[in-house]
Amino acid sequence: MIPLVLSGGNGTRLWPISRGGFPKQFHALTGEHTLFQQTVMRLDLPNIEAPIVVCNQSHRFIVTEQLKQIGRDAQQVLLEPFGRNTAPAVALAAMRLLNAGRDELLLVLPADHVIKNQQAFAAALEQAQAAAEKGDLVLFGVPAVSPETGYGYIRTSVSEVAAAGPRPVEQFVEKPDLDTARQYVEEGCYYWNSGMFLLRCSRYLDELKQYSPDIYDTCALALSTSHEDGEFLRIDGEVFEYCPDDSIDYAVMEKTATATVVPLDAGWSDVGSWSSLWEEQDKDESGNVLRGDVQQLGCHGSYAHATDKLLTLIGLDDVVAVETKDAVLIAHKDRVQDIKAVVNGLASAGREEVNSHRQVFRPWGSYDSVDSGSRFQVKRITVKPGASLSLQKHHHRAEHWIVVSGTAHVTCDDQTMILTENQSTYIPVAAVHRLANPGKIMLEIIEVQSGSYLGEDDIERYDDVYGRAAVVGS
């Protein structure tokens, strides 16, 4: 059994923590480890191989760094130039395996879900494996025990949803209104669609070719023109651009005659909103979930998350308050589904807060834009031990570097130098330069930029150990 971890989502409804450049699966929202790391660690079971990961190409170094943090490896990381939903992502992985002569069972897992009961998860996998080995396309259904309107539903003929054993799908149902959801719970034969699947590669591709041939053909062509880049497989964007944007459910599962449900009663949540995250967390005596530097007085049933500053709440019930370095969200818990509309409005206005945090992570470390004006910008830059930025130059800005801690190896045109704590240097406009950390501890510097244009696209790379010579950004 080969896990396929799908990590292409943006988690819009968990803005402002989740953003395009660093979405929710890479945040530790429910414990010590990120949702992505929890998904991979959940796979420490017999007869399950290392995972294949599908992610956006802009997240490739986040994926490898978070795998490294938990001591895990991926068989391969497939890089999509842009998202085309789950049906193409699974097709690419299945085709990749078949081309290598491996017609394995593929365990499809979103990277941003929570499963609390590992034993129940393992038991459901065992039931699903028996069905998938017979040729069924198996999906995991969560017993619908409350009237949720944010999930798709699956109807079966078995009236007791908690009963063990696979059962055929009778009908897929879109997200219902509240009254309809209550009716589903009362009838007792409905499941929430978890978005998790177990299927043999060849069986999925046969059904995809029959019911969604455009996806099949486009993925086959895109894969044939893709190229290896170390541990990554870069999917050809010129071809993949024409692939239909469709989920497994719409493309295959709602049309095939072999869709089978295996009950998954394992404390599952897709953590799809701030209200669902509140439901999953331990609460204080007033029903509040408080994360970070938060103080409250007279609040009940609220969720408060502070990342950078002291966050205080007084006399608020059933609200969500989330603080980041550059944005604050305050909403009633009943209205958190509307966050997506707010984010869409910000995107239409060209607001960068949709895509990036103030602190931006790179494969060599990170930078935090501390202050900025019309002709200056101040950044706090951290560089990992042994790491280095690209050899580069800027056409419109000069830079001053002050070492706060650690050791910096600086290249500036034909000069090199070693700087330590409290030492500084100046990088003129158009100077070819590089910053590296030759030491054993984190290097921290303050960078003061000045010039007529300070955008991240004012960069010309000459050499980069991370293969980003043609990519915009530090």
UniProtKB/TrEMBL annotation:
Q: Name one GO molecular function term.
A: GTP binding
Q: Its pathway? A: Nucleotide-sugar biosynthesis; GDP-alpha-D-mannose biosynthesis; GDP-alpha-D-mannose from alpha-D-mannose 1-phosphate (GTP route): step 1/1
Mannose-6-phosphate isomerase type II C-terminal domain location = 350-464
What's the domain of life for this entry? Answer: Bacteria
What is the top EC class of this enzyme, as a single word?
A: transferase
The keyword Nucleotidyltransferase belongs to this UniProt entry's keyword annotation: yes
* Pfam families with a match to the protein in the record: ManC_GMP_beta-helix, MannoseP_isomer, NTP_transferase
According to its UniProt record, the EC number is: 2.7.7.13
**Annotated keywords:** GTP-binding, Isomerase, Nucleotide-binding, Nucleotidyltransferase, Transferase
BP GO annotations? GDP-mannose biosynthetic process; polysaccharide biosynthetic process
Q: Domain MannoseP isomerase/GMP-like beta-helix spans what residues?
A: 299-346
The reaction(s) annotated as catalysed by this protein in its Swiss-Prot or TrEMBL entry are: alpha-D-mannose 1-phosphate + GTP + H(+) = GDP-alpha-D-mannose + diphosphate
Ranges for domain Nucleotidyl transferase come to: 3-285
For this protein, the record's NCBIfam families field holds: GMP_PMI (TIGR01479)
Q: Which family, according to UniProt?
A: Belongs to the mannose-6-phosphate isomerase type 2 family.
Tell me what this protein is called.
Answer: mannose-1-phosphate guanylyltransferase
Source organism per UniProt: Marinobacterium lutimaris
